[in-house]
Amino acid sequence: MGGRENSDEAYVLDLCDEVLGEQGLRQHRFDWLLGDAGATGRRIRLPVDSYWPGHKLVVEYREVQHDQPTPFFDKPGRLTVSEVERGEQRALYDARRDEEIPAHGLHLLVIRPSDLDANSRGRLQRKDRTGDLEAVRGILAATRGTGTSPQAGWARDEDRVVDAFRRWLVMEGWAPVAPTDRHTDIEAVRGAERLVGEAKGRTGEPGTDADIAYGQLLRRMTDPSPDTCYALVVPSSSVSHALRVPPPVRSQLRISIYEVTDDGSVRMRA
To answer: Domains of the chain by range and CATH?
Structure first.
């Protein structure tokens, strides 16, 4: 079987169906989730990967092309209805889903290849379906707030922080790119500028994790260019710990602190 039915996306959504005990509505379209207007002024309804009305849950499976340039999917040089290349439009539409779905009272869960057993190219191995099923069960339990450990919830909160910061970067004119170091949480460019970011979610040891994050950023400082800056991105509960490093030191290292609030807003902290 080929096509969408045998894709990694379908595999992940089948696992979600099994955990939830209900078949989701694949490629569902809401009247309020719209793309940009074309030359005729018509706006198409954007699909979501799957929607479970009984759980008020939307799941998006975002493969590597959603987070890094992929020429096969992006078709560089070919503009879309939004007057941008496909890679940028994909980021804009992902950000729109991330904003509009919760705003309409639904839960949005984003699953990525790294959440399951995937190879270096982001393709799922599918060698251990039981293990993948348990991973999805844990992700869904953390989202619903039941049946999981605090550590699992904290891991998902880091994803929330990264996703919110990525949306904010796009709105500020940055383009997320494939990290130079595969351990970097997020990397983006804007003209000649490059930003390298380390993110932390809610944690039981915010002070220790902030110190670890600074150390991780120091290891990323391999580019002497003054156009490269660094970001420590944390939830509101960790801001005070991130700010313990004196401002002159952060300025010397070109590190800025970004706060992600509980409602997903992002602001730079002095």
So the answer is: 1-148 (3.40.960), 150-270 (3.40.1350)
**What is the arrangement of strands in the sheet containing 107-111, beginning at the earlier edge strand?**
25-34, 45-52, 57-61, 107-111
Tens of each residue's pLDDT in the chain, 270 residues: 445 678 999 999 999 999 888 899 999 999 999 988 876 778 889 999 999 998 889 999 988 664 455 454 445 556 556 556 666 777 788 888 888 998 898 888 888 888 888 887 788 989 889 888 888 887 787 655 433 343 444 446 788 899 899 989 998 999 988 888 878 889 999 999 999 999 998 876 778 888 889 999 999 998 889 999 999 999 888 899 999 999 999 999 999 999 998 888 999 997
Question: Which of 175, 158, 265, 143 is CA-nearest to residue 212?
Answer: 158
